[in-house]
User: What shape does this take?
Amino acid sequence: MQLTTVPVLHRVLSVNSSQKQSAILAFLLGTLLVSFAIFHVVIDELILHSASFVLSVTVIGIRTMQLIKLRTEPDSVTRRKIWGIVIFGAVIFNAGYIVWLLDGWACGFLRSAREKIGLPWAFLLELHGWYVFNLLEEPQATDSETNRWHICTGIGAYIFIAVVDHLASGDDLQDIDESFAWPASWASRSIFAGRDAVIDSKQK
Assistant: This one.
């Protein structure tokens, strides 16, 4: 989680900064990351770990919105596409995170419910198995289970990393959707980008 958010956090905070300022920021964020990681492993707690993660994601979200307003024209097709991608990324990322929290809070209930329901429908209640953190929740999990690690949050993280990189680079953003893999490219023409984007997509 932190290994994903910290580089993106550095990227959004170092836009238009000098090489020296960027290096100092990288050192500070790296120091914080290592400190949090050591504290998390030694103390074995999740509150500070989760709180720092939420704070990082919040700062990235706010800064991303600022960059979108700064780098795109108001009411432009480009801004609409980017907003569609970002909103979709935020929705699917938070969905994965919320499901992980629910799985942690209701682990016992979900486990007993899966035993009663049986396969194949029990898979629907295997929240950590196909959303997030299967490896951390059940270290004895099989390889086939751990390969499904971080699907929703992985897609959301990819979208924000790519969007931030495009916004920070200063490149032409007119055809930004074409440089994204599915489902981000779809999101730029979906309801997430507004009703007009859906109409334009159908006309094409």
